[in-house]
Amino acid sequence: MELDRRTILRLAGAVPALAAAPVAIPGGGGSWERLRAHLAGELFRPGDPGYDEARLGFFSLYDHRMPDGVAICANEDDVRRCVEFAARHRIPIAARSGGHSYAGYSIVDKGLVVDLSRLSTVEILPGGRAAIGAGAMLRQVYEALAAAGRALPAGSCPTVGIAGLALGGGIGVLGRKYGLTCDRIESVRFVGADGEPRLVSAETAPDLLWALRGGGGGNFGIVTSFTFTTEAARTLANFELTFPPAVLADLVAAWQEWLPAMPDELWSGMGLGSQAANCGGCFVGSAAQVNPLLDDLVRRVGTQPTKRVVTEQGHLATMRALAEEVNFPAAVAVRGEYVSTSRMLTRPVRDPGALASLLTSDPRLYSIVDAYGGAIARVPSSASCFPHRSALGSIQITRGLDGGEAVARQSIGRVRDELGREFGQAGYVNYIDPEMPDWAKAYYGDSLPRLRRVARKYDPDGLFAFDQGLAR
C-alpha cells in the first residue's frame, strides 16, 4: 500500500565526490567526446562538473556505482545515438526514467546511463488517449491529465517514473476498476538494440507489445514514449483506517474475506508491522457509498479503529494525499534508505496469526499489501505478459538499513522465503530483489519462455543484458 511508503524513507546526507577512471574503449576519450558533440542533450563523465549529481539514482545503496557516462537525452535521436555508441563499443547500457530500481539496475557501473528525464511531455490526444514521454514522473503525469479531466491507473509515489512502473505492470489505487498501467499501453516509441527507432503497436510488432506490457524495465530496448488509453477523472473517496497493532492478525483475516466481495470501484491495501495494522485505499465514488463497505470491514475485524478518515475529492487531490505530497514539489529531498522484496498472495492466508508473527519477527520490518482482482484479473494472457492476474494481492516486505545492508537483506529474505513456502515462489518484478530465488520464474511465471524468445529476437547479442534481465 503506497499510503505509508513515506514511513520507510529518510533524508539523505551529502554524497561525497568519487573518482573513477573511464573504461578503455577504442578511440578512448575521443569517442566519448564525439558522442558528446552529437547529442542535443548533455553528457556527464567522471570529473565533469555535475557528474556526481547526474549519476545518482533514488537508492543510496548504489551511490558507489560509477558510470563512464550519463547522457541526459533531449530527444529520441539522442537515445538512438547512445544505443549505437554502446553497441559499437560493447559497453553496458541502461535506461533510467525515475531511477527507482530496487536493485539499482538503472545505474550501470562502467557503462552508459541513458537518462530519459527530459523526455517528459504529456500530450492529450483525441479520444482521451495520452502520449507520455518515458521520463515523466507520476506527479507530472497526474497534473497534466487532471488539467484535461483525465486519469490513468498507476502508482501513488510522485517521483516514480512512468516507464519503469508501466513496463513492470503498474499496480495502483485504480487497478481493480481500470486495470494495471501496462493494460493501458496502446503503443510505444522504442529504440531497439539495432539502434532503429520504431513504433510498437498491435499492428507493427504484436509480440513486442505483449512483452512490454509487464515484461519489466530494462529488457528488449529503450522505450522513449507511450500512448495510453485514459479514463475520465472522477470523484474518489480516499479512506484510512488505523487499528491497534495487536489486532494485525484479525485485520488480515477480515480483509482477505471482505475484499473479494467488494465492487471493482473499491481498492484497498494494508500496512503491517510491529507498530502498524492499517488499512487504506480509495473508492471510485462518494464517501456515502464507501462508508457502509468500511463498516462491514470493521465488523469483521471485531475492533474499532483508533482512526478513521474518509475524504471525498478529485483524482489529483487523492494522489497527492496518498503520496503525502501537499504540493507535489518539483524536487523531493528524500532518497531511499531501505531494501525490499515481494511475494504474491495467491490465495487467502490459512493462519493469519502465523503471518502476523512472521511480519513482526523483526521490529524494523514493514510490509505493504496491495489488492488485485477486478479488472486486473480479467485481462487475457494473450494481451499482456503480466503473469499474476489471479492473485488476491501482492505483499512487499521492506526494512531500513539499521545494522547494515546484509542484516536488512537477511531479515527480508527470511520472510520472503517463508511466504514462498506458503504461497508459491511468485514475486512482483517492480519490487525486484537481487537475491530472489529462481527470480525469472518468480517474476514472469508462465510468460517466461515466450519472453525469452522475444528478447532473443529484438536483442540477439544481449546489448541490454543485466543480472536479472531476460537477455542474459
Description:
The chain has 472 residues and is α+β, with helices and mostly antiparallel strands. It has three domains: 113 residues, Uridine Diphospho-n-acetylenolpyruvylglucosamine Reductase, domain 2; 123 residues, 2-Layer Sandwich (Uridine Diphospho-n-acetylenolpyruvylglucosamine Reductase, domain 3); 206 residues, 3-Layer(aba) Sandwich (Vanillyl-alcohol Oxidase, Chain A, domain 3), CATH 3.40.462. The chain is built from 14 helices and 20 strands. The strands form five sheets. It has a seven-stranded antiparallel β-sheet, with helices on both faces. It has a five-stranded antiparallel β-sheet with strand order 6-7-11-9-10, sandwiched between helices. Helix 4 runs antiparallel to helix 10 and helix 8 packs across helix 11. The protein starts with 8 loop residues before the first strand and ends in a 14-residue tail after the last helix. The N terminus is likely disordered. This is FAD-linked oxidoreductase. Its cofactor is FAD. Belongs to the oxygen-dependent FAD-linked oxidoreductase family.
